[in-house]
Amino acid sequence: MKNKLTYILCCLLQLCFLTSHAQEAVTTDVAPGIKKISTGVIDKLTPYSFCEEKPLTDALAKLPAAKLPFDVNAIRVNITDRGVLVEIPLDDTEQLYGFGLQIGSFNQRGLRKKPIVNDNPSADLGYTHAPTTFYVSNKGYGILVNTTRYTTFYCGTTAKNNGAAVVKNNTGGNSVDELYKNKDNGSGNVSVDVPGAKGIEIYVFEGPDLLNVLQRYNLFSGGGALPAMWGLGVKYRVKADFSQQQVGKMAAYFRANHIPCDVLGLEPRWQTAAYSCSYVWNNQFFPSPNEFIDTMKNKGFHINLWEHAFVSPKSPLYEPLKTKSGDYLVWNGLVPDFADPSARKLFADYHQETFVKHGISGFKMDECDNSNLTTGNSTWSFPEHSRFPSGLDGEQMHQVFGLLYQKTVYNIYKTLNLRTFLDVRASSSFASSYPAALYSDTYEHDEYIRMIVNSGFSGLIWSPEVRESKSIKDFMRRSQTAVLSAQTLYNSWYLQNPPWLQIDRDKNNKNELMPEAKQVEADVRTLLNFRMSLVPYLYRAFADYRLKGIPPFRALVVDYPQDKNTFDISDEYMIGQNILAAPLTEAADERKVYLPAGNWYDFNTNQKFEGGKSYTIKPSYTQLPIFIKEGTILPLAKPVEFITPDTKFEINCKVYGANPVSTSLFEDDGITFNFQTGSYNNVELSYMNNKGSVKRSGGFKKQRYVVKGWEVIK
Amino acid sequence: MKNKLTYILCCLLQLCFLTSHAQEAVTTDVAPGIKKISTGVIDKLTPYSFCEEKPLTDALAKLPAAKLPFDVNAIRVNITDRGVLVEIPLDDTEQLYGFGLQIGSFNQRGLRKKPIVNDNPSADLGYTHAPTTFYVSNKGYGILVNTTRYTTFYCGTTAKNNGAAVVKNNTGGNSVDELYKNKDNGSGNVSVDVPGAKGIEIYVFEGPDLLNVLQRYNLFSGGGALPAMWGLGVKYRVKADFSQQQVGKMAAYFRANHIPCDVLGLEPRWQTAAYSCSYVWNNQFFPSPNEFIDTMKNKGFHINLWEHAFVSPKSPLYEPLKTKSGDYLVWNGLVPDFADPSARKLFADYHQETFVKHGISGFKMDECDNSNLTTGNSTWSFPEHSRFPSGLDGEQMHQVFGLLYQKTVYNIYKTLNLRTFLDVRASSSFASSYPAALYSDTYEHDEYIRMIVNSGFSGLIWSPEVRESKSIKDFMRRSQTAVLSAQTLYNSWYLQNPPWLQIDRDKNNKNELMPEAKQVEADVRTLLNFRMSLVPYLYRAFADYRLKGIPPFRALVVDYPQDKNTFDISDEYMIGQNILAAPLTEAADERKVYLPAGNWYDFNTNQKFEGGKSYTIKPSYTQLPIFIKEGTILPLAKPVEFITPDTKFEINCKVYGANPVSTSLFEDDGITFNFQTGSYNNVELSYMNNKGSVKRSGGFKKQRYVVKGWEVIK
């Protein structure tokens, strides 16, 4: 009877909605250059509803005047018994990008994409670790459909039966050659199908330029993430069954061999139970964890703990979370309803008291990406029809589970005024402010490079980790890519020794090192030292991400949206303002690199190249495949082995070309949020009349950068 | 205003539903051993709603008394704002099969399956050419969720958070070895998630045995299909750009070289437009089509026409279908609303007048499987949010488009009292009565074998076609599989010459024949002659399919549901009552064959084997890998090159073992439905006291089988 009443009430509510349904959609300005279209009964829990960060309106206001290449009212929303259909204008020439961390595709024009959370690119349906329902156009706008529902985007691939069809001049494809060539890409719009929705919110991010669109998106989400500075160093994850003593030995190896390392990651065995998780130190392997953390800290290592969010009956969190979890178990463990603030708080408080207060610097948040989806066996996550006390169903929760998990853990650090750099296996929309790097098991190097390029379209950080390798060449090229990415990570969770000593998994675990081990180790040291040299430059790029919303890693088309040659380039990208990276895989010892307008310098040879053309490069294993834009002042640090708040970087500036543009470094303590209240400096580097100068301004009292020299490259 | 009113009415309707929602599900007996559970507001257009065939209740009533291993009321249905959730009991030991023509998996226990229409098995999500929402258990029952919506089945893989979770004895998987071993397969039920549904119909097919379940399913669907007898011969599809003259030349080749062939299939170029279709003869290539059909007929060839259902603006069908089509075009062509009888009639009438009345014997109905789904480019079919005048949306239409297309074309022949054998790229539930063979481009030989085995669980006919090959071995093994399947098809739509003359596509099209061409041709002739020998036996098997619902091709577990060794065998199958087939691929020259209870004879060596064990066989390219059950009388015909209603089969009976069981042949004209009104004979073959006997009973006046000899194998 109660049920019946609920349904009747529910239905009356729907009546109200349906009355409003016939009304027009409402468009509002929510921030400079950002509009929101709302219509129908909108889900209470949307990706944006979980975004606690405030839009950085000051920074938004400083962007060039916004402009949309079409009338916003041309966006049509249709609500039916199936759900919501959104149609957005699309002109014949524009190019589309986004949909989160796409693995298999780059330019999405002409494709259908269903960005749903999963680790398996599965025939390029759109499955991804980070299913943002967000795309951008090179014409300078972005469309975000703010929903947790599985959504399909038809990017200019449909044609309507509206009576306009005519007999075309072509033959209709009646010969074999024409069979697979049909390019009749239909009408000029993007159709977005959101089954099950009864209303929708659409965020429209205006330009004028593509970069401005991304800036607006990131600034609206609270700005990009600024990781703790040590996060930009090197992370190494030890074998899953290492004991406290073995981790200590590994740490000693790094320092003895002067291989840079800032973070050591522990894998499952540190807990008493891992599938599902107890979140309790396993004293058999870690008899004195807090002492261990301190010892490591004194040697310059931060400790990161692997876990996932499925709570074992063995966990102290089990009882408190029992009624704040979904109605299905995973590995016999609870699925906390992270959409409920009180569930997040329980989880966070426990982690804060048990781990963070004792010095744990970060977590690797695994298994939040519904990774079983494509293996047939569904024990790896909760079913899509799960129900959570917050009202989300399993499908909706899947889409935001990684997002909410990040939020839960990130808030611990924020509360403590501590910055961090996390690892997470799934993310979503409006997540740019979370300092968490996505990772994957997929491990195709060319895809890993494409994911760096795609990450910038959706406010994501991607970590192309290195594990075992097919060959030394494969290993070295992967290492180069790792060095030229947001997080340099060697993930040895199933390797006894660092992979540079033995690339083969079995031999590695039998301690059979390669004959070339010492040479490869030396080469890796060279690469990692370069990474450490680049940290100040990268840190500036991340500060620009935080403060201006500029993605530190982004496709060439972002900076050169009018250059047709960039439209499909998914294996080159910009790092910060001035570096163009073009990683190689083991496929070949050389590759073509397209350089956009302007002049560019090969970082390794200092040779100057004219833009607008392609060149072939052939870097060695220790030469990073990067080009520097003419006019750049590139600050490179003397490599350190790890970074502390006291680290003072000795900078050498490389000046490229005759008319260098002044640049700056971002100077703060590197570990707190004090920069938000002004405790940081801009360290401006200029070079004029054959002389370099350093100008410091801001509220941070310490000097972290000392410029030691200037090197001019003509 | 009108819109608003519609919605208010709609909502009031929902109110009525919601009142009924709180009511219990209603269970009714719909046929002997078949129950229907109904609850909520059920979609008007379901797969069963399209089934015009009447249940064969007499045959159903003859089956053993039905039995369900659980109380039917234990099936729970829950309707929420997400859709419908169905939970069906599952005990710890039972094995599950079905979900249509699954490509990647066989035993579905422990898997999640989403049977949605597509040609790409894509990480074994469940995508298939024939997405039946139907599974069966070896415990002797079947469950069919009668919906056109995309549905997910969790086959015993979920565990509920119901307070029952306890700390288990295992360690919770905290060591690396345990990471991937978690076998905690959760509670005892199958969960079925039907998003978007507001009510549901569930058909429960009872046993007692698994075979009875399949019989009930097929009989309920109108019985299995009985193809025209010529359909069991050999089909050859010619190159897509062949002219009338070239087809004639190919026909002459077959007869001159005494290679059996009953059907020649024409590919796209016969039409004036093919993507989309005009359904108009292209007179440039076929200047006199009706004369051509007659000439071919006189030589014993049936002509089959390739097409798909997307109607070109160049087609005479375009204007009439314009308002009876979906709101999106495919290749600039209409998508007829085949759920609307008047659209089907227009399409059928045109085909009847233009083609069937002039002697076209069948069609290949292509492109109805949403095959673009996994390629990213969605121009290959209509979007899921399409709307059709009948009320179906695109998702729902996709699931039944192939089904309705078959129905449309099959009805032409039924109306004319002509039997046929069609090709179709997609099917669905309740389709067993359609004489249409499914085909695919996927072309993995081991998968093609598995699909034969899976086809029997869902009332489907599968054609593992042969095209080019990697090696002669690959080609010959594929040919063997084709001979041991429901349709023997060589698909040379992109090959100038028969593939047995050149397996390599490029060389084939350059007319560079293999040095071994004549030998391979001879070997293929041997195999195809065997096929023709088997036709009377196969025809009986199909008659049993039609009259008793017994799948002619089925997994060993169907006949031996208690034998654990059969539970996972997906590369052996039964053909008819007495033949066990175990095809080889090019992977090896020998294979293991498991033989179930009883004694079996190797067809090639006549060696006798004891069942319950595995043996290794090593058949040559011309030896079919089959075993014959002890007690079998196997009627084999002297091969003919093609089959007409006048063909008289000269039969030699092979008698296996000392106590043969009498068997029978099904005798009719082979081309009409007159058997339905009694115009057929049972030709009983017995062997006793060293003497064979033939006893004919029934209402068919002609004799098509003459028994010439008996061969006893001890």
From TrEMBL, chains A, B:
The keyword Plastid is assigned to this record: no
Gene3D superfamilies: Glycosidases (3.20.20.80), glycosyl hydrolase (family 31) (2.60.40.1760), Golgi alpha-mannosidase II (2.60.40.1180)
A Pfam short name: Glyco_hydro_31_3rd
InterPro entries hit by this protein: DUF5110, Gal_mutarotase_sf_dom, GH, Glyco_hydro_31_C, Glyco_hydro_31_TIM, Glyco_hydro_b
GO annotation (BP), single: carbohydrate metabolic process
Domain DUF5110 positions: 652-703
SUPFAM superfamilies: (Trans)glycosidases (SSF51445), Galactose mutarotase-like (SSF74650), Glycosyl hydrolase domain (SSF51011)
Entry keyword set: Glycosidase, Hydrolase, Signal
Signal peptide (UniProt feature, chain positions): 1-22
Ranges for domain Glycosyl hydrolase family 31 C-terminal: 549-634
Heme as UniProt keyword: no
Cross-referenced CDD domains: GH31_N, GH31_NET37
Any one Gene Ontology molecular-function term assigned to this protein's record: carbohydrate binding
Transmembrane segments: none
Domain Glycoside hydrolase family 31 TIM barrel intervals: 225-540
PANTHER family: ALPHA-GLUCOSIDASE, ALPHA-XYLOSIDASE
Family designation: Belongs to the glycosyl hydrolase 31 family.
Protein name per the record: Alpha-D-xyloside xylohydrolase
Originating species: Mucilaginibacter pineti
